[in-house]
Amino acid sequence: METIRLAVIPGDGIGHEVVPGALKILERLAELHGGLKFEFEHYDYGCDYYLEHGEMMPEDGLEKLKESDAVFLGAVGDVNKVPDHISLWGLLIKIRREFQQEINVRPAKVFDGVRSPLGSPKDFDLVVVRENSEGEYSSVGGRMFHEEHEIAIQSSVFSKRATSQAMEYAFNLAGSRSGMVTSATKSNGIYHAMPFWDDVFKEVSMEYPEVSTTSEHIDALSASFVTRPERYDVVVASNLFGDILSDIGAGIMGSIGIAPSANLNINGKYPSMFEPVHGSAPDIVGRGLANPVGQIWTAKMLLDHFGYEDLGGRLLKAIEDTLREGIMTPDIGGNSSTEEVTASILERL
Ligand code: NAD
Ligand code: IPM
Ligand code: MN
């Protein structure tokens, strides 16, 4: 019997509405498997915790989380309680960085029966591999006055190590898929970092002669994601470009409520973290409108990560069958509640 110890952080907003259902599904799948067990350790870190304690998690928070095999997170952020840059840098981004989760994997694909803004899109199935620890997400810089004008300076940091590591991950992934990597660049406008990005991409691509490559500017690439998503397989991007592209990927699927993600620690020193792409969705909180599919598909990525691809496949099929039957939340054209969609997926396992 294998036991997987999960640190569970529902976080804020709809995190509390979508996480419990995904945990039930994980437990049910473990039961069906027979040789697998989950142990959940619940943590109340988030904006309410901040209001009470003045920080997003306690000083020994990371040490506690480190005892688990993985972190399963809902969403973080509630601007009515804590400014976003404080809450996110105090919890989500802190975990990603301190646990060296330097690779963020974010798939997007067509689901039958789901309302997409593309109408009836060609069958796309792509993965955004996002560098998850540096780039444009940097605390280097500051706000100051230059003569009488206030200015803000924000430096991006691109290391060859983390850049090439994200690219290598993308190439290896492409090797197990259709064998194509697209690099998201902006070397026409971003003077230092993006020509560097292109050089590293060329260098890494030499090691993978069997994988074909293209390099596209992020602006044109964003348009092309919408008009011809079927052209893409694996797309490697910097932290910010990958953030935006993965939301476009989610948007063309029909809703950011569907999209999953894995923040991977690939040196094995720390737990990885699994969370949906969407945020805490304050505008729909408490109304049963939250699409649980992003969190549940995230559970599938977790199962795959631990080598339970059979269970992961079973879960994806249950999601697909549920959506095909029209059992879905309003964001993708249905009229079912969070609980009804979750129950339907549970039943189909
Ligand atoms: P958001 O993803 O929370 O919401 C954007 C829009 O998508 C909203 O209209 C929302 O109702 C809708 N939406 C999101 N998830 C949905 C779901 N599961 N089902 C149905 N509809 C859904 O993004 P935002 O409004 O930019 O951010 C709100 C808060 O969440 C902010 O504090 C932000 O910083 C935070 N945030 C956190 C994460 C994270 O923890 N990973 C990610 C993104 C945003
Ligand atoms: C995401 C989110 C975060 C990010 C925010 C909330 C800091 O948008 O996980 O996509 O930009 O990484
Ligand atoms: Mn995002």
Automatic annotation (TrEMBL):
Residues 5-345 form the Isopropylmalate dehydrogenase-like domain. It comes from the Bacteria. It catalyses: (R)-malate + NAD(+) = pyruvate + CO2 + NADH. The keyword rRNA-binding does not apply. The keyword Manganese applies. Its EC number is 1.1.1.83. SUPFAM superfamilies: Isocitrate/Isopropylmalate dehydrogenase-like. It holds the Pfam family Iso_dh. GO terms for molecular function: D-malate dehydrogenase (decarboxylating) (NAD+) activity; magnesium ion binding; NAD binding. Keywords: Manganese, Metal-binding, NAD, Oxidoreductase. Its cofactor is Mn(2+); Mg(2+). InterPro entries: ICDH/IPMDH, IsoCit/isopropylmalate_DH_CS, IsoPropMal-DH-like_dom, TTC_DH. Belongs to the isocitrate and isopropylmalate dehydrogenases family. This is D-malate dehydrogenase (decarboxylating). It comes from Lacicoccus qingdaonensis. The lineage of its organism: Bacteria, Bacillati, Bacillota, Bacilli, Bacillales.
